[in-house]
Amino acid sequence: MTKEITITLNGEKQSLEVEPRLLLVHLIRENLNQTGTHIGCDTSSCGACTILVDGKSIKSCTMLAIQADGKEIITVEGLATTEGLHPIQEGFKENHGLHCGFCTPGMMMRAVELLENNPNPTEEEIRWGISGNLCRCTGYNNIVKAIQYAGAKIRGDELPSTEPEFV
Amino acid sequence: MIPAPFDYYAPTTLDEAISLLQELGDEAKILAGGHSLLPMMKLRFASPEQLIDINNIPGLSYIKEEDGFLKIGALTKEAELEHSDTIPGKYPIFLDATKLIADPQVRNMGTIGGNLAHGDAANDHPAVMLAMRAEVVATGPEGQRTIPIDEFFYGFYMTALGETDILTEIRIPIPAAGTGNAYHKLERKVGDYATAGVAVQLTLDSEGVCTYAGIGLTNVNPTPLRAERSEQALLGNKLTEEVIAQAAQFASEDCNPSDDLRGDEEYKRAMVGVLTKRMIHKAMERAQ
């Protein structure tokens, strides 16, 4: 049994035939060839597959593609525009918020919703906010700075220094 | 990991969903937030032949005080509880609990109804509901019935829901003045199941005498456990350190934890005692 679903992926509406057991992350990566969304643990622990569905950050390894029928999906490929990088991408770039980059797309998609709900989060709120995303390289400090930078950019405040701190 | 094949139904009314349950029989499972069911299906611990996705049924997501109850729709997401305006004030216990349930993305999907209907003693809401003497509303072919929480969990992953029932609402008696509540679980890392968890709700009269005590325990028994001897130790007494220590002692004696990677039995019993003490103190502070 397959069923036709219609989704809007990064602004583009498309209809597809899916088997009910197809996971949303597989639809995005394998059927639609948008491989920016990663598969890490495949058990909804690591957050590498985080995307936005109707504006909410979710783990796409634990949602069925068929459940996304009629929904609007944004992945990391949908962040930058012709004007340039999204503030969160700029934040990660300026603050060295990544080493290997595997967790980065999910981390950024989570941060987008976090800043949407709270454009001026404290460090503690950021750390709680990304508690569902694991990074095995950075030690998180530069990710926190990247999110603070993006928050300032979104608010139109003065941008924090991106000079590394030596201790 | 890919689940075994299944047929998928997405009813848009409750009647339609219940008819599907009647028609399809016991191989059909209800899909709410999916964050307990889908992982089990991916690991092939569960292979339902049909999934009935109830997310397209309107009117099952709300948090409101009405007729002496806090009523929570079964499809209310954990994230909605976490950010609700109704929840702080009389119900800080829900904030304590939801903040410790998995992580923000999972809370965007997971529902309070699913958390209870899964019947897992490791989930956090069951203990909270036991402490607050909640009632669960089940809707089936004959209409609605309410099930007291004490009669809801009766076996490993087993609940009082019948094959054609859908959990539609949770009702919590609005706490009397002088009530405080609190929940905490010990976890190894964010998103882990509890090593042990304790939910406490207390009502104190103007003299400081305990007139209501509810204590629920997470993940230290095959089913969610109400610590009845601990409650009795508090009821009718002023909550001195001695009385509290007695209640904590009873809770650690009456639970039945098993050894696992989170700790051995002795450690878990000790942690139940520590957490019971702490949560009684926190509930007392909040009762002021």
Structure keywords:
heterodimer; A: alpha+beta; 31% helix; B: 288 residues; alpha+beta; five-stranded antiparallel beta sheet; 10 helices; globular
Reconstruct the topology from this structure.
The complex is a heterodimer of chains A (167) and B (288).
Chain A: E1 3-9, E2 12-18, H1 24-31, E3 50-53, E4 56-59, E5 72-74, H2 87-94, H3 104-117, H4 123-129, H5 141-155
Parallel strand pairs in A: 1-5
Antiparallel strand pairs in A: 1-2, 3-4, 3-5
Chain B: E1 7-9, H1 14-24, E2 28-31, H2 37-42, E3 50-53, E4 63-66, E5 69-73, H3 78-82, H4 92-99, H5 104-109, H6 112-117, H7 125-132, E6 135-140, E7 143-148, E8 153-155, E9 158-159, E10 166-173, E11 179-186, E12 196-204, E13 210-218, E14 225-226, H8 228-234, H9 241-254, H10 265-287
Parallel strand pairs in B: 1-3, 2-3
Antiparallel strand pairs in B: 4-5, 5-10, 6-7, 6-10, 8-9, 11-12, 12-13, 13-14
Helix pairs in contact in B: 8-9, 9-10
Give an overview in words.
The complex is a heterodimer of chains A (167) and B (288). With 167 residues, chain A is α+β, with helices and mostly antiparallel strands. Helices cover 31% and strands 15% of the residues of chain A. Chain A has helices spanning 24-31, 87-94, 104-117, 123-129, 141-155; strands at residues 3-9, 12-18, 50-53, 56-59, 72-74. In chain A, a hairpin with a 2-residue loop joins strand 3 (50-53) and strand 4 (56-59). In chain A, helix 2 (87-94) crosses helix 5 (141-155) and helix 3 (104-117) packs across helix 5. In chain A, 47% of the residues are buried. Chain B has ten helices and 14 strands. In chain B, a hairpin with a 2-residue loop joins strand 6 (135-140) and strand 7 (143-148). In chain B, helix 8 packs antiparallel against helix 9 (241-254) and helix 9 (241-254) packs antiparallel against helix 10 (265-287). The longest helix of chain B is centred in the C-terminal third of the chain and has 23 residues, at 265-287. Chain B is globular. The termini of chain B are far apart. Classes of the chains: A alpha+beta (167), B alpha+beta (288). The A-B interface holds A 1, 3, 19-21, 23, 26, 42-45, 47, 50, 56-59, 62-64, 66-67, 69, 110, 113-114, 117, 128-129, 131-133 and B 1-8, 10, 31, 34-35, 38-39, 42, 51, 53, 55, 79, 83, 99, 102-106, 108-109, 190-191.
